[in-house]
Design a protein that fits this description.
alpha+beta
Length: about 140
């Protein structure tokens, strides 16, 4: 599946109304809100365990610098992502959820069912740099119904 096809199918099935994208810049953790994740932020990479390809968030240095010019929210030191029983993506999701004064709970709800957080009645998907958005096998399953 091409990158354009994966993006089109991901957007078609996504339950999110918008996205919060996180990244580390100069040792600090930031996030930006966006209506859609632009293709320049996404890469297609080989997935593991026979899942086909992954559509993955990859924010290169020049893209981080462009996001910095748009006044992202700083959550503090990138050390927020480390430690505890959760991975970096889960720690980021927890930090963002708590930033919006909501209680975070680890879940396994797929992107096509709901976002990670509800803000002002809108479903928002939360993704940290290097996160996998979807794999090809799951997109094919959704296309089949």
């Amino acid at each position: 599946m091409t990158k354009a096809t994966m993006i089109r199918n991901y957007r078609k099935f996504s339950a999110a109304d918008s996205y919060i994208v996180g990244f580390v810049y100069n040792g600090l953790l930031y996030f930006s809100e966006m209506a859609e994740i632009a293709p320049r932020f996404l890469k297609v990479e080989q997935a593991s365990r026979n899942q086909g390809d992954n559509l993955r968030l990859r924010i290169r240095k020049e893209l981080k610098e462009s996001l910095m010019r748009k006044n992202p929210v700083c959550l503090g030191s990138a050390e927020i992502l480390d430690g505890g029983k959760y991975n970096k993506g889960e720690n980021f999701e927890k930090a963002v959820t708590e930033y919006f004064s909501q209680e975070w709970e680890k879940d396994r709800v797929p992107f096509n069912v709901s976002g990670d957080i509800t803000l002002n009645g809108k479903e928002v998907q939360i993704k940290l740099d290097s996160a996998t958005l979807v794999n090809e096998k799951y997109l094919n399953k959704l296309k089949k119904g």
